[in-house]
Structures are given as structure tokens and as C-alpha cells.
């Protein structure tokens, strides 16, 4: 039975769903009626996300008094590993009986260091997780029709001290998204990127409070973002309300760096 909402009945795969923006995206898509596959290398955290998700307006219950049917599921994955991503897609297909028609790539890492001190390993790791994984998800998207959304970063456009690897990976996400938008349009698959500014999540816990204060002061809207600010845009891009939008990068920055 399809649930009410803009994504009623759709299977949505969200990577990085155990934390921060990914967790908020899972919650938002579930409220829109999607059946959510929450994937993360932190499988326990992905399970916690599932536990907090809306069960779906039209979800059938087996019988009165029985525990509610849970339409969502948690999966462990390392998005930087091709075999792990292939296995994830097979498990999602098996669990839901269909491939995902919405795919939101939120898994990401930072390994900040000034360029002259940045090790090759940290450069490659950030590219591997933030960029190569995006390519794998795009190639793997087999559903006829659908929406792929990747979380890039405003840093990919403007650069940031100590984030050469991160900025390179996020700039790459945009180029890849636009190319895939061109290549996959004929299959009815739309590909868009969301570029958050500074959003309060466990990732920003690593940023010194003084630096965060400085950034908050630079935001025209006067505050750092919440994960829900990004999730709202992902829900729009996942839905038919954005059916003529592909290859776009949507900034969610409160006006920072406009
Ligand atoms: P977060 O709270 O750290 O969440 C990221 C999640 O991705 C974590 O659960 C993390 O697991 C997981 N992950 C990392 N590498 C993975 C891998 N190889 N395979 C599977 N899962 C993996 O970060 P966030 O702030 O929500 O960030 C989400 C996305 O938004 C990232 O792509 C980030 O670059 C982007 N972004 C964030 C901001 C911001 O200000 N927060 C701004 C712009 C863009 P572990 O905890 O085990 O690493």
C-alpha cells in the first residue's frame, strides 16, 4: 500500500544515514511516505535512525494489537568499497523487492590539514569516500526513472583553509553530478547536488568553536544551518515537484558566500 506524502511508496536509499544530515534526510523522506534504506558504516547508528523514523501513514499492520510493521531498514556499508556498495544494492533490492528510485549520498569525511602538510593517504581517503562513492552510486542506479541527490559542499566552490582534499572532492561531486545528469536523463533519472554551508552536526564538532562563531557571524541569515534545512531541499529534489530540475546545484547556506 502506498503511503501518503510526496514520496508515497518510493524506496529511498540514504548513505551516511546514521548521523547528522543523513539522519535528518531519512526522517524527512520517511515523513513523505518513502520506505527508507538507511546505510552507513556505523550500522548500529543506522539502526538507531530507523528506530526513530515515521512508520508511514498508510503502512498496513498485520493485525490489531501486533507490533507495527516497520517499512524501513538499516544496512552496513563502506561507500568507498565497490564490493560493499554492490552488496548493499543487492540487499536493498532483496529487502524492499525493488531497487531504490531515490538515492541520497550523504556519507562523507573530512581529514583537514594545510596543503603543504597534507599526506597522500588523507588526500586519497577523502576523495575515495566523498567522490568515488558518488560515482559508484550513480553507476549502480538501475531504476528506470528516479532522483539521485548528492550532498556536496559550498566549500567545493569557494575553497577553505585546511580543506584542499575536501574542497577537491566536493568540486568533483558537482562535475560528476552534472555529467551524470546529461548521461542519465534519457533513462528518466535526474541528478542534482545540494551544497550546504555550515550545518551543525557531529562533523562540525571537529571545528573549533571560535571558527564556527566566526562563520555564523558571516552568514547573512545570522545563524549556522540545521540538518533539517538540508533535508527539506533533498525532499523537494527527490519529489516530482522538481521534475524539470536536473544537473543543478542548490546552495543551502543562509546566504553565505553568495
Ligand atoms: P556526519 O554527521 O559525520 O555524518 C556522516 C556519516 O557518514 C557518518 O555516520 C559517517 O560514519 C558516515 N560515513 C563516513 N564515511 C563512510 C563510508 N566510507 N561509508 C559509509 N558511511 C560513511 O557528517 P554530516 O555533517 O552529516 O555530513 C553529511 C554530508 O554533508 C557529508 O558529505 C559532508 O561532507 C556534507 N557537508 C556537511 C556540512 C556541515 O557543515 N556539516 C557542510 C557541507 C557539506 P563515521 O561517523 O563512522 O565516519
Please describe what this structure looks like:
The structure is a single chain. This protein is an alpha/beta fold. It contains 8 helices and 7 strands; from the N terminus they run E-H-E-H-E-H-E-H-E-H-H-E-H-H-E. The chain has a single domain, classed as Rossmann fold. Helix 1 links the parallel strand 1 and strand 2. Helix 1 crosses helix 8, helix 3 runs parallel beside helix 4 and helix 4 packs parallel to helix 6. The longest helix has 21 residues. It is globular. NADP nicotinamide-adenine-dinucleotide phosphate binds next to helix 1 and helix 4. The site of NADP nicotinamide-adenine-dinucleotide phosphate has 30 residues, from helix 1 and helix 4.
CATH architecture: 3-Layer(aba) Sandwich
Instruction: Indicate how many domains the architecture comprises.
Output: 1
Task: Compute the average pLDDT.
Answer: 90
> What string gives the helices and strands in order?
EHEHEHEHEHHEHHE
Give a short account of the largest sheet. 7 strands, parallel
Shape from CA axes? globular
Strand order of the largest sheet: 3-2-1-4-5-6-7
The unreliable regions are 57-63
What ligand molecules are bound, each kind once? NADP nicotinamide-adenine-dinucleotide phosphate
Number of strands: 7
Helical content band: 40-55%
Structural category: alpha/beta
Identify the CATH homologous superfamily. NAD(P)-binding Rossmann-like Domain
The CATH class is identified as Alpha Beta
Distance from N terminus to C terminus (CA atoms, Å) equals 44 Å
Amino acid at each position: 500500500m502506498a503511503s501518503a506524502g510526496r514520496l508515497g511508496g518510493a524506496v529511498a536509499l540514504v548513505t551516511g544515514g546514521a548521523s547528522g544530515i543523513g539522519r535528518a534526510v531519512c526522517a524527512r523522506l520517511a515523513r513523505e511516505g518513502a520506505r527508507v534504506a538507511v546505510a552507513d558504516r556505523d550500522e548500529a547508528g543506522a539502526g538507531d535512525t530507523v528506530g526513530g523514523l515515521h512508520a508511514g501513514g498508510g503502512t498496513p499492520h498485520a493485525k490489531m494489537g501486533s507490533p507495527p510493521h516497520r517499512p524501513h531498514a538499516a544496512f552496513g556499508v563502506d561507500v568507498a568499497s565497490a564490493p560493499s556498495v554492490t552488496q548493499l544494492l543487492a540487499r536493498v533490492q532483496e529487502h524492499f523487492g525493488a531497487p531504490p528510485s531515490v538515492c541520497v549520498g550523504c556519507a562523507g569525511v573530512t581529514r583537514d590539514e594545510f596543503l603543504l602538510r597534507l599526506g597522500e593517504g588523507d588526500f586519497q581517503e577523502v576523495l575515495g569516500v566523498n567522490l568515488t562513492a558518488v560515482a559508484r552510486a550513480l553507476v549502480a542506479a538501475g531504476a528506470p526513472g528516479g532522483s539521485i541527490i548528492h550532498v556536496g559542499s559550498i566549500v567545493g566552490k569557494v575553497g577553505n583553509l585546511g580543506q584542499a582534499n575536501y574542497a577537491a572532492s566536493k568540486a568533483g561531486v558537482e562535475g560528476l553530478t552534472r555529467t551524470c545528469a546529461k548521461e542519465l536523463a534519457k533513462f528518466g533519472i535526474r541528478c542534482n547536488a545540494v551544497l550546504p554551508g555550515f550545518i551543525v552536526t557531529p562533523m562540525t564538532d571537529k571545528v573549533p568553536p571560535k571558527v564556527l562563531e566566526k562563520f555564523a557571524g558571516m552568514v547573512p541569515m545570522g545563524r549556522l544551518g540545521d540538518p533539517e534545512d538540508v533535508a527539506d531541499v533533498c525532499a523537494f529534489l527527490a519529489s516530482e515537484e522538481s521534475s524539470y530540475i536536473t544537473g543543478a546545484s542548490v546552495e543551502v547556506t543562509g546566504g553565505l558566500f553568495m
